[in-house]
Amino acid sequence: MIHFPVAVFMPKQNAKSLEALLAPYGKTIAVAPFSHRTPENNLTGNSDTPSTINPNPKWDSWSVGGKWADTLLLKGSRGIKNGVSAARVSDIDFAAMQRRDGTVFCTSDVITPDGKWHSAEDRSRLGFLFGEASSNWLWTRSYHARFIKQAIKRRWRLVIVDCYI
To answer: Which residues pair with 59 in a beta bridge?
Structure first.
């Protein structure tokens, strides 16, 4: 089982629940029937196989924090033991986290309040985990401007979710 962190951004009011934002990406979610070609179909020449299993799953299971529990440091906190797994983005001390971790805050995947899943491009889940963002320079470099600044401006909350696949 592979664990990977997902930063889930949630608006301050009228928010979809965390479960609702993650649900469309679950492996076991049933979808409208569709046809897909399997490797066996290609070998045998048979027609496409009908399916109702999510064709683009991102996770089998998830938990808040998980392996990354208490990762977020709050402004004014003292020491590593004062971390949380969810907070208003404007309350997070990203500079203190960078000093502690030796790298900028960046997760391999993000869900925005509109329900869209964003992923670092051209990365293997095995080689791109939280705090090891150097494997995708462009994703890491744009992460703060693309997600954190918008979240601060819009007063979003951030929840760190540990997904497994």
So the answer is: 26
Whole-Å CA distances, 27 to 13, 24, 37, 104: 28, 9, 18, 30
Q: Which two tokens stand for residue 13?
A: 């009011």
pTM for this structure? 0.79
The CA dihedral of 151, 9, 124, 97, to the nearest 10 degrees, is 60
pLDDT tens sequence across 72-123: 999 987 655 678 999 999 999 999 999 988 989 999 899 999 999 999 864 4
Annotated domain spans of the chain:
3-23+59-164, 26-53
Q: What's the CA dihedral at 37, 42, 45, 47 to 10 degrees? A: 0
Q: Nearest Cα to 154, choosing from 5, 9, 6, 7?
A: 9
